[in-house]
Amino acid sequence: MELKNNITLTFLVLIIIFLIATHDVRGQLHSENFDGFYIGLTSGIQNIFAGSLIQGEDILAQDSRFVLEIPIGFRKQIVNDRLLIGGEVHYGFADGNLKHIDMERELVIDYNFKSQYGFGITLGYVIGNKKNYLLYVYGNETKRKFDNSILSSNVSFSQKDKQGMLRYGLGFEWAFFKKLHARLSAGKLRVDFGDIQTNIDVEDQLDYNIGLLYQF
């Protein structure tokens, strides 16, 4: 039910942004449709994992969950306005609480999601006669924080967890009004735990997001 409410809220907000941005129907597209600052709202399914260090082992839990993100960035079109380079920061809200249960070890861990944020770069190529379509690749360093509640052999305690990962992938953006853009992206992530032993290997599941951007 919580996931359904999140999806409903997302689409309501996207509709509001659409109505605001398209109120002035006189706005015309131009060659620098993707140039400058922008802000947006995206939603989708992302690969979320969290960990807790128990007796030298990082006990992980993982699932694909709904995430709502606010991206803010700046881009510059170069070489006849066809090539694009940009940077972006984002803050996310997620249905990200996870749980691990190991009856043999008498271990129960609740990973309580607290926040998600990140930053990255975008490289793209603008296509179309009106230069209103963008194909791009992205790479984002994303951080997630969790407050963990642990019950081990009838002893309860807490930990804080911070996960960092590289998210990368492909995207498509369509400037269909002067200031309003639609975005679709899909990608994966890379994570490195170093020499720390983990109970599972994090599966490289697909992330996908859709959303609207307002280009200033």
List keywords for this structure.
OMP/PagP_B-barrel, Beta-barrel_OMP, 10 strands, mainly beta, Outer membrane protein beta-barrel domain-containing protein, 9% helix, 216 residues, Porin, 1 helix, signal
Describe what this molecule looks like in 3D.
With 216 residues, the chain is mainly beta. It has 1 helix and 10 strands. It has one helix spanning 2-21; strands at 36-54, 57-78, 83-94, 98-102, 107-127, 133-152, 155-175, 180-190, 197-198, 207-215. It has an 8-stranded antiparallel barrel. A hairpin with a 4-residue loop joins strand 7 and strand 8 (180-190). Mean pLDDT is 89; it is low at 21-27. This is Outer membrane protein beta-barrel domain-containing protein. It comes from Flagellimonas ochracea.
Structural topology:
Blueprint: H1 2-21, E1 36-54, E2 57-78, E3 83-94, E4 98-102, E5 107-127, E6 133-152, E7 155-175, E8 180-190, E9 197-198, E10 207-215
